[in-house]
Write a structure and sequence with these properties.
It is a single chain. Helix 2 packs parallel to helix 3. Strands 1-2 form a two-stranded parallel sheet. Helices cover about 45% and strands about 5% of the residues. Strand 1, helix 2 and strand 2 form a beta-alpha-beta unit. By secondary structure, it is mainly α. The mean pLDDT is about 95. This is PseI/NeuA/B-like domain-containing protein. InterPro entries: Aldolase_TIM (IPR013785), PseI-like (IPR051690), PseI/NeuA/B-like_N (IPR013132).
Length: about 100
């Protein structure tokens, strides 16, 4: 909805939940900027530490976002070289069935 309202502005997500799943989902839904707090100790004093990410969670967030970005692709449909053999086999089979 934000992207429809502001088509020329990158839409972001500011997460204050525990874990990384919701931030990754935001990327899958179109977020281009992710803001998350990081901490050295989730039990430290302060309201944000518990929902902040430690180093390993931040690394996993980045890996997961990059995976989602690759999975979403460019939107341009084209056959990859690794798909050609399977495509050719299916095409021949399909022609033989007609």
């Amino acid at each position: 909805e934000y992207q429809k309202e502001f088509p020329d502005i990158p839409i972001g997500y500011s997460g204050h939940e525990s874990g990384i799943s919701i931030s990754v989902a935001a990327v899958a839904l179109g977020a281009k900027v992710i803001e998350r707090h990081i901490t050295l100790d989730k039990k430290a004093k302060g309201s944000d530490h518990e929902a902040s990410l430690v180093h390993s969670e931040l690394a996993e967030l980045v890996r997961s976002i990059r995976l989602v970005e690759r999975a979403l692709g460019s939107g341009i449909k084209q056959m990859l070289p690794c798909e050609k053999a399977c495509h050719d086999k299916v095409t021949v089979f399909s022609e033989e069935m007609q």
